[in-house]
Amino acid sequence: MNWIVRIAAVLIGILVLGTAVLLAMGQRSSAGQSHASVEIQAAPEQVWPWLEDTGRLKQWVSWLVEVRDQPGSTPGVGTRRVWVMRDENNGGQLMELPFTYTEYAPPSRMTVSCTVAGEFSGRQKYHLTPLGNGKTRVDSEGDYAYQMWLARLMEPVITPAAEKKMRSDLVRLKDAVEKGAAKP
């Protein structure tokens, strides 16, 4: 019977230690922040439509199944848009992400804020930098805070996964733009 108590104590100790490590990591200064960039063989004016056109967005943003714009709106500061995503990490459930443009300066900068009540809030920035010779660097930066206790605890796992998805999506953007830009 002693060995059962010892095994239980070890398992509880591992859980407590793991939770403590996650809590400590979640307090780092870069918690919730992610960054990815890609260089694309196209001018910013050729890249920009891929950041706002509904059909083009669905070609490079993984999990994106629908984009709903505020009726009668055109992109600009204050414009609202809802992205409907099929979260592959959550059993394929649909989730709606309401975005509001907080910065809009085509073809160089765009920032959108997103708040899902009780879950998370933050912003996503896109910055297009011309590199000359028809080449553009696209930087994407996310800065999110989680309200759900489990998401706050798991932030050290969630943020790197989100950054990995962001990098993958930017590679898809590069491929899509370069193929599209090559068409006559």
3D architecture notes:
This protein is α+β, with helices and mostly antiparallel strands. The protein has one domain (31-182): START domain (Alpha-D-Glucose-1,6-Bisphosphate, Chain A, domain 4), CATH 3.30.530. The protein has 5 helices and 7 strands, in the order H-E-H-H-H-E-E-E-E-E-E-H. It has a 7-stranded antiparallel β-sheet. Strand 6 and strand 7 (135-146) form a beta hairpin. Helix 1 packs across helix 5 (149-182).
SSE topology:
Elements: H1 2-25, E1 33-40, H2 44-47, H3 49-52, H4 54-60, E2 64-69, E3 80-87, E4 93-105, E5 109-116, E6 120-132, E7 135-146, H5 149-182
Antiparallel strand pairs: 1-7, 2-3, 3-4, 4-5, 5-6, 6-7
Helix pairs in contact: 1-5
Descriptive keywords:
single chain, 184 residues, alpha+beta, Alpha-D-Glucose-1,6-Bisphosphate, Chain A, domain 4, seven-stranded antiparallel β-sheet, 5 helices, 7 strands, elongated
Class of secondary structure makeup: alpha+beta
Biggest sheet descriptor: 7 strands, antiparallel
The amount of beta strand, in percent, is 35-45%
Q: Give the name of the CATH architecture.
A: 2-Layer Sandwich
What is the highest CATH level, the class?
Alpha Beta
As a percent range, the share of helical residues equals 25-40%
Detail the poorly predicted runs.
none
Overall shape: it is elongated
Summarize the structure.
The protein is an alpha+beta fold. It has a single domain, classed as Alpha-D-Glucose-1,6-Bisphosphate, Chain A, domain 4 (2-Layer Sandwich).
